[in-house]
Amino acid sequence: MTDAQEAAAETTLRTAGGGPPDSPSAAVPLLEPREGIPPVVAGPDALAEIIAAFAAGSGPVAVDAERASGYRYGQRAYLVQLRRAGAGTALIDPVGCPDLSGLAAAIMDAEWVLHAATQDLPCLRDIGMVPQRLFDTELAGRLAGFARVGLGPMVENVLGYALEKGHSAVDWSTRPLPEPWLRYAALDVELLVDLRDALEAELAEQGKLEWARQEFAAIAAAPPAPPRKDPWRRTSGMHKVRRRRQMAVVRELWEARDQIAQRRDVSPGKVLSDGAIVEAALALPTSARALAALPGYGSRMSRRQLEQWQAAVERARTLPETDLPQPGQPLNGPPPPRAWADKDPAAAARLSAARTAVTALAEGLNLPQENLITPDTVRRLCWEPPAEATAESVAAVLGGYGARAWQIELVTPALTAALLTPAA
Q: What is the CA radius of gyration of the chain?
C-alpha cells in the first residue's frame, strides 16, 4: 500500500450516515496487493507452508472464493483467497488442492471474514472449509443502512478505495489463471478485515452490533441447504407453460440437459437454453425436423443433438396422464398473498397491517425490511396466527420460524397489534 493509500485509510471513513463520496475521484484506486501477487498454491507441499503460516498468523481471516458460474456445471470453487495478519495473502487452487480441511482446522479458532457469506459457504464446505465464527461484511452493511452493499461500493464508501471489479464474471476454471485475474482476486481480500473493523465500529455506534452477531452466528450454524424439489420448475419462461403435457416436456428436456451438462462439466445453459426448452414445450413438435424449426434449435445443432432432444419430447408426449406433473408446486405454507382477500379476508387484513408496521419499523431503524424480519415469516404468522395473540405467543411463533432474538424483540409488539386488526 502506498503512502497516499495509507493516508486515505487514516482520513477516510464514509459510513452509512456520511453517505457515498462526493465524486468518483474521491476514491483512491487500489491497483496492487501490498506484498504483490502471491504464487498460486496447487500442491501439497505449498499448501503445508500456507497452513503453517496461517496457523501462526493473528486476528481474523479474510476468505473469498471464485466460481465459474455460467461456464461449468455446479458451483464448485476454482480459487480460494485468504489473508491474515502475519501470514499475508494466499491464493489456493482447489483443483490441485481439493481438500482444505487441514487449513480450516488451522484457522478454526479465528473469525472468518466473508462478503456475502451465504454465496461462498456452500462451495467452501465442499472442500472442507467450514467456519465456526464469521463476520459477513455485506450483511453488516445492510444492517448499518448502506444503500449499496457490493464489495466494491462498500470498500469505496467506507475505506475510500476503488477496487477494480472487471473480472468478477470470468471463467475461473481457466488454467493457468491470467495475472490480471489473480491480481483482482488478491485485492478482493486485501482490505476485507479493514472493512470488517470499520463496519463493526459503525454497528456499535448505531447500537446494532449485537444484532449483527446474532445474524452471523445463525449463518455459521445453518446446515447445508437441502436439494431443491423439482428444480425444472424454475426454468426461465415457465409461466408460459400451462398444460400438464407441456410441463412434462419441460421436465424431460431439463433433466436430459442436466445429465449432459453434468457429464461434460459445462453450464446447462451452454447445452440448451431455457428459452429453447420452453419453445419445444409450447410447440410439442412431432419430429426432429419440426423441432429444428423452433427458436434455439437452429442450423448449428447437429442431427444427433436434434434427435436426442426430440427423444425427450417424445417421452413426454407418450407419458400416461397419471404420470404427468401437476400444475404448480405443493404449497409448503400459506397461499400467494393475492389470493388472501378471497380465501380469508381476516388474514388479508392482518397481513396488510403487519406489512405496514414492519415497513415503518424498518425505515425508522434504517435497515431493509427483509433483514428486520423475513416476509415469509410475516406471511406464515398472519395466515395461521396463534389462538390468542399475545406478545408471548407471537414471540414463540416467530422463534419457531427461526427469527433471532433481536428480531423478535423489535417486531413482536407491532406484529401482535397487527394480528388484532379486524377484517374490513
A: 26
**Counting beta carbons within 10 angstroms of the beta carbon of residue 269, is it exposed (0 to 12), middle (13 to 18) or buried (19 or more)?**
middle
Q: What is the pLDDT of residues 32-60, one digit of tens each?
A: 999 999 999 999 999 999 999 999 999 99
Tens digits of residue pLDDT in 248-287: 999 999 999 999 999 999 999 999 999 999 999 999 999 9
DSSP secondary structure, 321-382, as one string: GGGSPPSS---SSSPPGGGHHHH-HHHHHHHHHHHHHHHHHHHHHTS-HHHHS-HHHHHHHH
- Distance from C-alpha of 188 to C-alpha of 357, rounded to nearest angstrom: 38
**pTM (two decimals):** 0.90
Closest CA to 354 of 365, 344, 362: 362
Rounded Cα–Cα distance for residues 345 and 137 (Å): 41
Torsion 51-89-92-61 (CA) sign: positive
Residue pair 8/160 in contact (Cβ under 8 Å)? The answer is yes
Cis peptide before 21 (omega within 30 of 0): no
Write the DSSP string, 161-185: EEE--TTTTS-TT-SSPPHHHHHHH
Decide: 186 and 91 in contact? Cβ < 8 Å: yes
Start-to-end CA distance of the chain, whole Å, equals 63
Domains of the chain: 3-221 (3.30.420.10), 231-323 (1.10.150.80), 337-419 (1.10.150.80)
